[in-house]
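Model: You mentioned two targets. I'll fold them one after the other.
Researcher: Yes, keep them separate.
Model: Target one:
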Amino acid sequence: MEQELEAAIGFRIRKLRVAKSLTLDDLANASGVSRAMISRIERGEASPTASLLARVCAALGLSLSAFFAEEGEVSPLLRRQDQQVWRDPETGYVRRAVSPPGTASDVDIVDVEFPPGGRVSFPPHVASSGMTQHVWLFDGELEMTTGEAVYRLLPGDCLLMPVGEGHVFHNPGNIPARYCVVLDRRGR
């Protein structure tokens, strides 16, 4: 299943890159990811980390949620067994796209399970400027850095933060942190 998803990720990046008439060099320059790495990902030979994939998506003008949205029949209902699940190969965090894709909604909902000690950085990117996200913690603890501010979240806490400024997710605890990200694209 993971190899199929890696191939699908590579295919989708290539499809989006070609649709925007970008060369590998163009996408590499816009994302800060090497041409060779993008090529390996497109061929399904490498699995991108969350941070790397976020940079490529930003260069393509997409959020991670929009990138993972399946194309095809639009329905207001997306059953759990049909939700796209992706595991970051670097941190092991598991991301489940909860929102039905292809609808007219400007809001994406993502369910995340983040391993103890995990840390992932999302660099600032202009394509996401104006977008916001709520991070709502259900279990564990989470340390969020956005700009110069650092917030410690405990179960039930919810943090609103801009997406385009970049941020760091860190689980300082000894149990997995489970949280929901509600991404609002209206501000872009």
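Model: Target two:
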Amino acid sequence: MNIILFGPPGAGKGTQATQLATNHNLLHISTGDILRAAIKEGTPLGIEAKHYVESGGLVPDSVIIGLVREVLQANIGPDRGFLLDGFPRTVEQARALDTLFRDIDIKDVRIVILIAPEEELVGRMLKRGVELGRKDDTEETIRHRLEVYTAQTSPVRAYYEETRQVSEVDGLGRVEEVAARIDKALRQSPPALHW
């Protein structure tokens, strides 16, 4: 089983991604992490990405997809799947990812979206900002981040819903309760066999 996990800032996606990866023996892929690792290791794609990062530009989708391809080909197999954490963020990335899955014959991919009311998300992030001493985590900046997330991911969700089942999971409650809901959704979600 392979999972693409979405969720707005503050929905607990990071916590759930870590737990899901552990519970299901999945490779946890965060594109930010693999990008930093490739730059640090000086791989060909890492060197290419470093040029964009150092010049203040966005790393192109082709580089990110290339990094995901390398990680998948090196680390997954019949006994181990993956969990993509917060990627793809755009429809273009989703299409490129579909092409990658077809190229390397990955079929069973489940889409899970954590949801929570906006006021709950804002409250969580304000509290976290205080706990971590983040002075820039104001209500205004948090609401802007949520707007950006919605604008970016709504088209991605619509794209996936055209061809496969998307499981929406309530992100409110204790970590264990949310994890149990995700597991139930995964059991009820048929594998997407056609990409």
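Researcher: Noted. Anything on target two?
Model: DSSP finds eight helices and five strands in the chain.
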